[in-house]
Amino acid sequence: MFIQGPVEITTTRLNPHVDPTLHAWGWEVPVDLFLAALAAGMAILHATVVLSGRQQRYPSLIRWATLVPPLALGMALGALFLDLEYKLHLFRFFTTFQVTSPMSWGSWLYLLLSISTGLTALATYTRSEPIPLKRLAWANLVLGVGLVIYTGVLLSSVQARPAWNSPVLLPLFLVTGLLSALALAGFWSRNRTERRSFAAATLVLLAAEAVLVLFYCVHLATSGASGSEALALIMGGPYTAAFWSLVVVAGILLPALLEMQTWRQRWPATAVAPALILVGGLALRFVLVQAGQHLSV
Fold it and tell me: What are the boundaries of each domain within the chain?
C-alpha cells in the first residue's frame, strides 16, 4: 500500500488586487488627479476674475479659460475609465449618490463642473447668457473648490497609507491646482501686464507650496514609526530623486527664480516656467500615489 505523506503548501499571498503592499493604481490615477485639479483651478481663476469685475485686465484668461475645464475633465474621466476593472460599470457612478463615499462625491463634482463650465463657455463665445454669467461664476467657484479638495480627500482619507494620511494634502492639492491653471494661462498670454500679474500670483502660490511641502514632511516625521517610514521613501528611499528633482527643484525653485525675474521685468516672460510648474504638479501626484502604495500599515 502506498501512503502519501503530508503536503507542504507555501503561499506568498501575492495577489495584485488584494495584497496592500502591491500597486493597485497605475499611471491613470495621478493623471486623473492632475487633470481634475487643473480643471478646478482654471474654473476658480476664471470665476474670481468675473466676480471681481476685472475681465478687461485679463483678456486671454477670459477668452480661453472657459474651454479648459470641460476638456480637462473629459480627459480625466478618460484616464479614470482606463483604470476601472469593469469599464462598463462607469455609468453607475452617476446613478446614485453616497454621502460617505469620496468617489461618489468626485463623480458628481466632475459632472456638475463640466456642465457649469460648459455653459460658461457657451455664454462667453456666443455672447448669450441663458444663465447670468455671475451665477455661473459662483457655481464654478464652489464646484471648483470642491473638486480640487476632493482630489486631496481621495488620498488623505485612506488611513492605512501613511504617505497619504495627512491633512496637508488638501491645501497642497488646492495650491498646486491653482498653480497649474496659472501656468497654462501663462502659455497663451501675450499681454505684458496680464503676464506680470500671473507672475506675481505664481510667486505667492509657489511660496505657499514650498511651505506646505515642508509641513507635509514635518507631519510625517512626527506621526510615529509609520510616518517616519513614509518620509524615508522621499528621504533616501526609491522616490527621493523624483521628488526632489521634479517636484521641489523643477516644480518650485526654478519657476520661482524665473517668475521673479519676469515680475521684476528683468527677463522676458517665456514658456519655461509654466512648463516646469505643470511638470512639477504632475510629478507630485505620481510620487504621492506611488509612494502611498509602497507602504501600508
Answer: 28-294
Single pTM value for the model: 0.84
Q: Rounded CA gap, 181 and 41, in Å?
A: 5
Q: What is the CATH number of domain 28-294?
A: 1.20.1630.10
What digits encode the pLDDT tens for the residues 91-120? 676 777 777 777 777 788 888 999 999 898
